[in-house]
Write a structure and sequence with these properties.
about 475 residues, alpha/beta, two-stranded antiparallel sheet, about 40% helix, elongated
Length: about 475
């Protein structure tokens, strides 16, 4: 009997306790962290690419927020993930889930950025790639796009993801005969993982990856693609297109994991969601002003006793749509700080156009304490009340920063700036300008009310740690 004749029969796919042990033995040089009950790779793009191409692993899957929810409801898919040799963290939803468990992953290895980086190194090593998936012609067009962007890449063959794999025996024979070293399977989640899991032992290529909608992006089927091949320099990639609000149905911040039972499916990215966000900003800011009024008055007194000058610092910032507004903060610097800025530019600790110095001599004694715990930001609650800012959003930029923006950075101005956001909960001043912009743009593209709630919850941890606050 031909060894391939039973391919259409489902394989027994219950996960066993030894599945994760097997994964740990493969690609042992890749560090992993347990997130969402799965061992996710915690390494840079370069480290992961090298480990995969050096051998030791065969099946590679990406896990985003949508995948996590599917695994929760589909035992067969969950078991397939349990048998994967390598699982890569994909998207801010998984990163947020890790933070909820007190884990900080080093890099976001999303498929649209990571896969081209992998293929670029594969081309240098003379490895060819076989593409399976999507609608007729999509894999072929995706292969053509990859060849244009990656010098020396060899496409060993392509198959459509529907009719061409209806006969698994013929499809696998074609793949094996091609001599490909890598197979990319883009059938969508969870079909691609189940297909790989069922047929992996009969495939000859050394590496098989499930890559989701990558071919659609490369082939131009999706209008607004993240230009993965042209932006491989962005190791984090911070794509919020994975909709972390789906993940929020299951996981929320706290000492452990809890089922999120709120009906988040009704919170769509519509005008209703925008109204909900503004209503929440209005009610919450008014409540905060009332509750924190004794603290605000006490801080005013301390600032007045510490140094001469106004208690509240006013500055022009750029808001939604590029409209200027006056931002309010507690004064943390001496009154001649702006005049001394020109002489301080060479001392900036942050790369990019935003000045930030860890040991800025312009900061007062009380100012250092206020910055350490982000108390200096509290007057911005009034900006939220007046509708100039939101509780959650991109960092409010200075006019001179906006004037120096690269083209892609202007998208961050499509939302109201926020007191907190992705940048604030991820390290603040420790993060360079380019990554800050990437985070803000990612937030603008996929903002939702539930995501705002998650970021507000994470803000408490960020404030307590004081990381990047100076």
């Amino acid at each position: 009997m031909n060894a391939l004749t039973d391919f259409t029969a489902p394989r027994r796919i219950e996960a066993t306790p030894g599945d994760h042990d097997r994964t740990a033995r493969l690609c042992a040089d890749l560090p992993r962290r347990m997130v969402l009950d799965l061992p996710l790779v915690d390494a840079s793009t370069a480290q992961t690419v090298a480990a995969l191409l050096d051998g030791g692993a065969r099946s590679v899957y990406f896990l985003n927020a949508h995948c996590a929810n599917l695994a929760h409801t589909r035992p067969a898919y969950s078991a397939a993930l349990g048998r994967a040799d390598v699982i890569l963290p994909d998207g801010i939803g998984v990163d947020l889930a890790a933070r909820m468990a007190g884990i900080r992953l080093g890099a976001n290895l999303n498929g649209t950025d990571f896969t081209p980086a992998l293929l670029q190194e594969a081309a240098k090593r003379g490895l060819s790639v076989f593409l399976i998936g999507a609608t007729p012609g999509t894999a072929r067009r995706a292969g053509e796009a990859l060849c244009r962007d990656i010098a020396g890449l060899q496409i060993a063959g392509t198959l459509n993801g529907y009719d061409d794999v209806a006969d698994p025996e013929a499809a696998i024979a074609t793949i094996n005969a091609s001599g490909a070293g890598i197979v990319l399977v883009a059938m969508g989640v969870p079909q691609q993982e189940l297909w790989i899991d069922r047929h992996l032992e009969h495939l000859s290529p050394r590496l098989v990856l499930g890559v989701g909608a990558l071919f659609d992006f490369l082939a131009g089927n999706v209008v607004r693609a993240p230009a993965p091949v042209r932006r491989m320099r962005l190791e984090w990639g911070w794509r919020l297109a994975q909709e972390p609000r789906r993940l929020a149905r299951r996981y929320v911040l706290g000492n452990g994991r809890f089922l999120w039972r709120a009906a988040t499916h009704v919170l769509q990215r519509t005008s209703r969601d925008a109204l909900l966000k503004r209503g929440f900003d209005l009610v919450f800011s008014a409540a905060l002003i009332t509750l924190l009024s004794p603290l605000l008055l006490g801080v005013c007194a301390l600032i007045r006793l510490d140094s001469r000058g106004p208690v509240v610092f006013r500055q022009t910032r750029v808001g939604k749509g590029g409209a200027p507004f006056t931002i309010y903060k507690f004064r943390t610097m001496f009154t001649d700080a702006e005049a001394r800025l020109a002489t301080m530019q060479a001392c900036s600790d942050r790369k990019g156009i935003c000045f930030k110095s860890r040991h800025d001599p312009r900061v007062t004694r009380i100012g250092r304490m206020l910055r350490r715990y982000s108390i200096d930001e509290l007057p911005q609650i009034f900006n939220v009340l007046f509708g100039q800012m939101s509780l959650v959003g991109p960092r409010p930029a200075l006019p001179r920063e906006v004037a120096a923006y690269p083209a892609g950075a202007h998208e961050r101005l499509e939302a109201r700036p926020g007191i907190t956001g992705l940048w604030q909960v991820s390290g603040r001043a420790d993060i360079g300008f380019d990554k800050m912009v990437d985070m803000d743009v990612a937030y603008v593209r996929s903002r939702s009310f539930v995501l705002d709630l998650m970021l507000l919850a994470l803000t408490a941890r960020a404030v307590t740690s004081g990381r990047g606050a100076y």
